[in-house]
Every structure is written in C-alpha cells, then in structure tokens.
Amino acid sequence: MTAKVLLTLWRHGEAGSASSDAARELTGRGRVEVSAMASDFSAWLDAAGLPVVAKLYTSPLIRAQQTAALLAQHGCSEGPDICADLVPGAIPEGFDDSAFDDYAHVAAVTHQPFLSRAIAFWTDDATLASLAPAGYATLQVTSLERGGATLLRHRPDPRSAGHMRLS
Q: Can you give the CATH number for the domain in which 86 is found?
C-alpha cells in the first residue's frame, strides 16, 4: 500500500447464548447499541470530512454478520463480505494490505482478542482500552506492520458513551 487509507475495526454487538459459539445472535440490546454507535460513527465521518466506508468485511460468525448488516444500513458502498480470516483466534501479523487496494476506507467486524491485539500492534500502543461489544476504532493506515497506523477515533464502549440512551 502506498497511500494512507482508513481502517475501522468493529467488535460485534452483544450476543446471547446458543448451542454453539458460531450460532450466537445479537440480543435486542446488542442491536440498539450497534445502531447507536453506527449513527455516531456516520455523523463523525461527515463532520470530520472523512470518506464513508467503501468496503465492509465481516467474520463468518452470525453475530458479526448481523452487526455488519446493521452497519451497512448507515452507509457503505460495498459489502458486507464474509472474510474467513476474521474468525476468533486471528492474529494481526497474518494480515496484509491487499484488502485496501481499491478503497479509501475499509471496515471489518470481528472478535476479541484479535481487535485489541490488532489495534495495539498496528498503532504500537498497548495502553488503549479493549473494545467492548459494539465498540470501534478508526485507524489511518500506512502499513499493517507494527506502528504502521495512527489512531483517529477510539469508541471502546457504547455503554460509557455519554450521548447514548439505551432504555
């Protein structure tokens, strides 16, 4: 990658119980929190003059797919596309920049602990709070190497966001 692009990493919304981890679906609260955070995100992009998400990827797990579908309703040019590399247990060192080739802003919906590890690795900052369900971080990426990105926005927990009313 030669140009800087935006990468927004989302944690799936709150999920309920199921017979298997892969089958866990978003709860009602999870849907509300994802929608509220997506609205906040969209407003921030607009106010900051930043490009909307051009490509959206998601883990194959149902809760991530449901989160991505909600995010797509708030503006996204392409996707969501399932990416098998975004399953729980993924490691940031295993990713390359090829997903960015044709896009100014890429987003990915995935799981912990990958999210915290990726943000810490790519920004070279291990002090950032972990993303709670429905949390997100937007990075300006030069490369997907250690320290190859700058944190632009970090909204780790929808429940601590002062503007949200989740009644």
A: 3.40.50.1240
Distances from the Cα of 78 to the Cα of 25, 57, 116, 145, angstroms = 23, 9, 25, 25
Mean pLDDT value across residues 110-134: 95
Instruction: Name the domain count of the chain.
Output: 1
Q: What's the rounded mean pLDDT across residues 116-126?
A: 95
pLDDT (tens digit, 9 = 90+) per residue, 70-97? 999 987 777 799 998 898 888 888 787 7
Asked whether residue 154 is assigned to any structural domain, the reply reads yes
Q: Of 154 and 79, which is predicted with more confidence? A: 154
Place of tokens 């990105």: 149
* Partner residues linked to 76 by β-bridges: 53
How open is the CA angle 28-80-55, to the nearest 5 degrees? 125
Would you say residue 67 lies in a domain? Answer: yes
Among 14, 12, 17, residue whose Cα is nearest residue 110: 12
H or E element: which one contains 75?
none
The answer to the question of residue 167 being in a domain is: no
Identify the bridge partners of residue 151 per DSSP, sorted by sequence position.
139
In a domain, 82, yes or no: yes
Domain that holds residue 40: 5-160
